[in-house]
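Q: I'm building a small set of examples for a reading group on sequence design. Run inverse folding on the following structure and report the sequence directly after it, with nothing in between.
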């Protein structure tokens, strides 16, 4: 399973649709099946969504420079 990110070309700029997708083989061909549509997210949220579904959890550092 993986997170599929599709840029939103018709609506707000800087957003993407995110799908939880499964890969499988049928008659020797690789195919994808959408398990769940997660929705529309801002592009800066995409790494956090991917990290949530990753097998090896990466260490994400959030740097808030709002001083």
């Amino acid at each position: 399973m993986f997170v599929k990110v599709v840029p939103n070309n018709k609506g707000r700029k800087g957003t993407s649709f995110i799908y939880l997708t499964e890969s499988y083989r049928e008659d020797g061909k690789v195919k994808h099946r959408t398990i769940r549509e997660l929705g529309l997210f801002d592009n800066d949220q995409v790494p956090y969504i991917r990290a949530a579904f990753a097998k090896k959890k990466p260490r994400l550092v959030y740097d808030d420079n709002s001083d």
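The chain has a mean pLDDT of 86.
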